[in-house]
Write a structure and sequence with these properties.
CATH superfamily of the largest domain in chain A: GntR ligand-binding domain-like
CATH topology of the largest domain in chain A: Four Helix Bundle (Hemerythrin (Met), subunit A)
Radius of gyration of chain A: 19 Å
Structural class of chain A: mainly alpha
Shape of chain A: globular
Oligomer: homodimer
CATH architecture of the largest domain in chain A: Up-down Bundle
Largest interface: A-B, 32 and 32 residues
Helix content of chain A: over 70%
Number of domains of chain A: 2
DNA sequence: TTACGCCAGATTGTCGACAATCGGAGTATT
DNA sequence: AATACTCCGATTGTCGACAATCTGGCGTAA
């Protein structure tokens, strides 16, 4: 680089990370036009790396590109989220089934400890709910890792994970579902501990269905308000 | 463009398509280093669009990029293919279940007609087997479309589809599995016709498991030979 | 007034050149 | 002879400038 090497990796990678963060947190609104020159200047880089980053984010489904018309932040409408939760149910169910057979006892114990920390957080603070959401995603990702299926981990981690976070940031204000979610998580860990893959998959699928119902209701309310 | 507009879309897109084709057909060997300058010259374009294409293919898992060390064609080893078929089983099973509820009678009838054409092809020619393979992928993709889940279609179509084709080109020589595969396809269409989603999912999962066993044996033989 | 075509500004797509980095050949040292 | 160091060629990463394209507003004619 010419002047400095502040972060790690290529500029295109840092641009992808920063852009993903801005999109997920809502700093960049859904459907917003992404101007290459403007973003390049904001990130202090040329348009080349930025264009590569946009390609990357397109693969992650965070932005939608139209030839000769630029890139826009993806819009999470009801249909898109419904599709996402459907796919998630299938993939995370599968991850649970595999994890029940593949995770070590130690990993399962750590998963339990993770839930203990979540419970602590919930008791202590009622305000910062998104922290629990991020922790919830940790839980799901650890199970994906436990499946030992690299492709599954990539799909749940690199792609859907970001969309999920984006959805969470949008609807995290009224998250009264943390309590039942935690119980469901505990049930899943119990099933893993018993090495009951079928049960673990069933519980995970129900858990995700419940999450979708909750999100769906929230969307209804928002649409009704608008 | 400066001189001509031979194909459609941006140069990065045509580069991605041509590269994907070269990789899938085996023209570019697995693990082969991809030199940007060389490829750019071969495609008659600058390195900018080519780099964007490589980013795209990285998202499709067809190439693996390492910062400051270039891009290489992905290597389909046993573990990777095993993971792929596992994920496929979950996703295509889901697609079948949804398709049983969502496809129109007309679409299901067209699916049956597609199988009739496959049968014709198999009877007429024993040699060009890959044609059946491509047709097989058509069958699977039509079911994915029938699910009406856009994310599922994208995943099965844009990403896994290419890896599957790549795998097929590698192992298409001795494809004695066409006959039983066709029968299994017919069973699946029957289940769709009866709107039995559970059965359709079960049959599809078995079908893919069978395909994996077949591929797995082939890999064993190759490894043994080597 | 409305519809059509046209022009200018802005934005995207592309290229060539330069800087940074990596890998390997060659040499010196122990 | 083996190891470490250094330098050089090759390759990747980045930038600035130019061409192609799209968008929106304006003017003109029916």
């Amino acid at each position: 680089m010419l002047v400095k090497v502040p972060e790690q990796g290529t500029l295109a990678d840092v641009a992808a990370h920063r852009l993903a963060h801005s999109i997920v947190t809502g700093e960049l609104e859904q459907g917003q036009k992404l101007n290459e020159a403007e973003l390049a200047e904001r990130f202090g880089m040329g348009r080349g790396p930025l264009r590569e980053a946009l390609r990357h984010l397109e693969g992650m489904r965070l932005v939608k590109r139209i030839p000769n018309a630029g890139a826009r932040v993806v819009v999470l409408d009801r249909k898109t989220l419904s599709d996402l939760y459907g796919v998630r149910e299938a993939l995370e169910g599968m991850a649970c089934r595999l994890a029940a057979a593949q995770m070590t006892d130690d990993e399962i114990a750590q998963l339990g400890a993770l839930l203990d920390r979540h419970e602590e957080q919930i008791k202590k603070q009622g305000g910062k709910l998104y922290a629990q959401s991020e922790g919830d995603l940790d839980f799901h990702f650890q199970i994906a890792r436990g499946s030992r299926n690299q492709m599954l981990m990539d799909m749940l981690g690199s792609e859907q994970y970001q969309l999920l976070r984006m959805c969470r940031y949008r609807t995290s204000r009224n998250a009264q579902r943390t309590k039942p979610a935690l119980n469901q998580h505990r049930q899943i860990v119990d099933a893993l501990r018993q090495r009951d893959g079928e049960l673990a998959e069933l519980l995970m699928r129900r858990h995700i269905q419940g999450a979708w119902r909750s999100i769906s209701e929230m969307i209804d309310i928002e649409e009704q308000a608008a």
